[in-house]
Design a protein that fits this description.
The chain is an alpha/beta fold. Helix 11 links the parallel strand 11 and strand 12 (317-319). Helix content is 43%, strand content 16%. Strands 1, 2, 3, 4, 5, 6 and 7 form a 7-stranded parallel sheet that branches. It has a 5-stranded parallel sheet with strand order 9-8-10-11-12, covered by helices on one side. It has helices spanning 3-18, 37-50, 90-102, 120-130, 143-152, 170-176, 213-216, 220-234, 239-269, 280-288, 302-310; strands at residues 26-28, 57-60, 76-79, 82-86, 108-116, 136-140, 157-160, 184-187, 207-210, 275-277, 293-295, 317-319.
């Protein structure tokens, strides 16, 4: 299957499965106000997807600016997808659980996630909370996660849905795309998901070696936003002040995080003629930009899981084979 046909297929799968679940107004409560460009690409895809829905967006917040507003039962709560369901990045999971407990009467849709647990006791704990909710929809973004949810969270509604970044507006990609150069990129992640024995020691001079740029140097937009997030946290017990601070922080985050970092991510990847990556969203953005991609798995195996689930009928991404 060619590139355009595959992207169209994945977008159709997202829209056809998720749009019936969100018939009216909705709210996004855990947007990624942080430096991981891949998660911000998910947010951009959610933003573009939601623009096609009939209801209104009643607000976007993150775990610091979320004030747990009173919601009508007909409002759908959206939770951002990604790779942090489980115990590897526990802070995000704990926040999701708080939302599930706080809103027992609202439909909650957790957008496509990859799952990873190392502590089996936490699986049982999380399942008890989530399966208690009567209208919780868990979207898995790969076959492994779908099987896991089906076994351990079987009282929830389980769907298999592609990553939301595939819903990024093609016009955005065209707008910020830069001219291709002969240079190639080895995107080597710099966090705890990197598998040390997969690191390429001799990549060659034609390759640049980077992680996403905000992991390599402080991001000015995030630096500007951080004092507002800190103030929002400190004023949580002062309703009027916390609300005003949260509103301001959310509006600024939409510009300085979502719009700015998506633009920077596209400009960063698009000049390369080939990419070797240890990050899933470098693979996905590379595919969206039409760049040949080779993948090296992270700690949780989510790159190969996603590729095997959705891209096995294409040559858009393939495993990296060391030629040494």
């Amino acid at each position: 299957m060619d590139l355009n046909s595959k992207i169209a297929e994945l977008r159709a799968s997202i829209y056809n499965q998720l749009s019936p679940l969100i018939p009216g107004d909705y709210i996004l409560m855990d947007a990624p106000y942080y430096r991981n460009v891949g998660d911000v690409l998910i947010w951009e895809g959610i933003h573009d997807f939601c623009r096609r829905l009939p209801g209104r967006n009643l607000g976007t917040s993150n775990m610091t600016t979320c004030l747990f507003p009173e919601l009508s039962p007909d409002v759908t709560i959206l939770l951002t997808g990604g790779g942090n369901f489980g115990d590897l990045w526990r802070i995000f999971q704990d926040f999701r659980l708080e939302i599930v407990k706080h809103y027992p009467n609202n439909r909650i849709v957790m957008l496509p996630q990859s799952v990873w647990y190392e502590n089996p006791n936490l699986i049982k704990k999380d399942a008890e909370i989530m399966t208690n909710h009567t209208d919780l929809h868990l979207c898995a973004r790969d076959a492994y996660s779908f099987k896991f949810f089906s076994e351990h969270f079987k009282e929830c509604n389980i769907l298999l849905v592609p990553d939301m970044a595939f819903f990024i507006n093609p016009d955005t990609l065209k707008k910020y795309r830069k001219k291709t150069s002969p240079r190639k990129l080895y995107l080597k992640r710099s966090d705890k998901e990197l598998v040390a024995d997969t690191v390429i020691s001799d990549i060659g001079e034609v390759f640049d070696i980077h992680d996403w740029k905000p992991f390599e140097k402080p991001d000015k937009g995030l630096a500007f936003l951080q004092p507002l997030l800190s103030m929002a946290y400190r004023t949580r017990n002062k309703p009027t002040l916390s609300k005003l601070t949260a509103i301001l922080a959310n509006k600024i985050a939409d510009k300085l995080v979502r719009e700015r970092m998506v633009r920077a991510g596209i400009k960063f990847l698009s000049p390369y003629s080939e990419i070797i990556t240890t990050r899933l969203h470098t693979m996905i953005l590379g595919i969206l930009l039409g760049i040949p991609v080779k993948i090296i798995d992270n700690k949780t195996g989510k790159l190969s899981s996603f590729s095997d689930t959705w891209l096995s009928d294409t040559d858009l991404a393939s495993p990296y084979r060391d030629r040494s």
